[in-house]
Amino acid sequence: MTSNLDRIPELALEWHNNGSGAVLATVVETWGSAPRRAGSQMVVSAAGVMEGSVSGGCVEGAVVAEALEALSRGTAELLEFGVADEDAFAVGLACGGRIRILVEPVGAVISVDVLETLVKARAARQQMAYLVNVASGERRLVSRAKAAEDTAMLDRFAKDRSGFDGDWFIGIHSPGIRLAVVGAVHIAQALMPMARLAGFDPVLIDPRPGFVAASRFPGETIIEAWPDEGLQQIGLDPRAGVITLTHDPKLDDPAIKTALASEAFYIGALGSNRTHAKRVQRLIADGFSNLQIARIHAPVGLDIGAANPAEIAVSILAEVIQRLRRT
Predict the structure, then answer these.
(1) In the chain, N or C: fewer CB atoms in 10 Å?
(2) How far is residue 23's CA from residue 94's CA, in Å, rounded to a whole number?
(3) In angstroms, what is the C-alpha Rg of the chain?
(4) Which residues pair with 204 in a beta bridge?
(5) Distance between CA 288 and CA 27 in Å, rounded?
(6) Cβ neighbours of residue 30 closer than 8 Å, sequence gap 6 or more
(7) Quick one: DSSP state of residue 240?
(8) Dihedral sign computed on CA atoms, order 13, 200, 243, 291
(9) Neighbouring residues of 190: CB distance < 8 A, sequence distance ≥ 6
(10) In terms of DSSP bridges, do strands 139-143 and 296-297 run parallel, antiparallel, or are they unpaired?
(11) Is the Cβ–Cβ distance between 251 and 236 less than 8 Å?
């Protein structure tokens, strides 16, 4: 389930539309051990209700007060706060830092049309950048598709890295990373909670009732279906990865073929080099090119000498993150 921490633009639009008033507060720049990274957001209503976080608790109260002032004036404000060492320690940091936060009332500063477009893009799992020129006040949206020739912007999209470029603050909005794990095996029992802890949205797919018993995967999203059908059900886009763990061609191969026909950013398959060589031959026989097959990470995971299911899960998750952040 998506938490409110991940729905700040959506909440801002809802609150504005229902008359509650809404102000978006966004971390635009940090120095030192700031508790929250650039791009983190909070929304504040006219009644002082807030959702989200811009500092982990250090300056939220002051931001709410400034947000209410900005809402009454109908103007944007660029705030700067120093996080003292003692406050930083309270939120789990070794030392303090500084943060700048942009406060923007919805309607008066951020147009409803812009916010609606952003929310629709997020719902459609499309990456979008919200740009603000802090000198001129100009605001606009840029989709990943429109940034096709801008290597710096594409790098920001790939790394989910919000921040400044001259006078422009670039706030990256990306859909969550889906990880489709095919095969309810011991490795999956370790990988699913690890992936969720790391901020991914894992989904387990396996047609075998005994394997996908809820008692083996408490609290996880499970699709009891053949892998190709399950993958088609959830959909694969550039923010999705596929990991096959069954070691059974009858289950792994349909999933891999579906993944190769998609824009999934990561495809990993369990098995030895010998097992993968046989897999490659089957895929070639089915008409897949060497270039397509080269997308498969096999044997899956970084070579860290993993020796048990949990360690293998760590190696897989590390490789997924490496592929995601270094694309």
Answers:
(1) N
(2) 31
(3) 22
(4) 181, 222
(5) 45
(6) 36, 37, 38, 97, 98, 99, 100
(7) E
(8) positive
(9) 309, 310, 312, 313
(10) unpaired
(11) no
Residue type, 152: A
pLDDT recorded at residue 3: 46
The list of the chain residues with pLDDT below 70 reads: 1-5, 33-35, 56-57, 83-96, 327
**Bridge pairing between strands 221-223 and 201-205:** parallel
CA distances to 1, 179, 186, 192, 212 from 218, rounded to whole Å, are 14, 17, 14, 10, 10
Closest CA to 321 of 204, 194, 172: 194
Quote the CA–CA distance of 202 and 136 in Å, as a whole number. 42
Instruction: Please state whether beta strands 240-244 and 266-269 pair in parallel, antiparallel, or not at all (unpaired).
Output: parallel
* Residue 130 bridge partners (DSSP): 141, 171
Are the C-beta atoms of 48 and 64 separated by less than 8 Å?
yes
The 3-state secondary structure of 241-271 reads EEEECCCCHHHHHHHHHHHHCCCCCEEEECC
pLDDT of residue 88: 52
CB 128 within 8 A of CB 144: yes
Q: What are the tens digits of pLDDT across the range 124-173?
A: 888 999 999 999 999 999 999 888 788 899 889 888 899 999 999 999 99
Assigned token pair, 22 = 């809404």
**Tokens representing 100?**
């700048």
Distance CA(11)–CA(218), nearest Å, equals 29
Contacts of 281 (CB under 8 A, 6+ apart): none
Output b/e per residue, 148-166; b: 16+ Cβ within 10 A: eeeeebeebbbebebbeee
The tokens for 18 are 């229902």
pTM of the entire predicted model: 0.73
205 - beta bridge partners? 182, 223
User: Residue 76 and residue 55: Cα distance in Å, rounded?
Assistant: 19
Structure tokens at 105: 């009332």
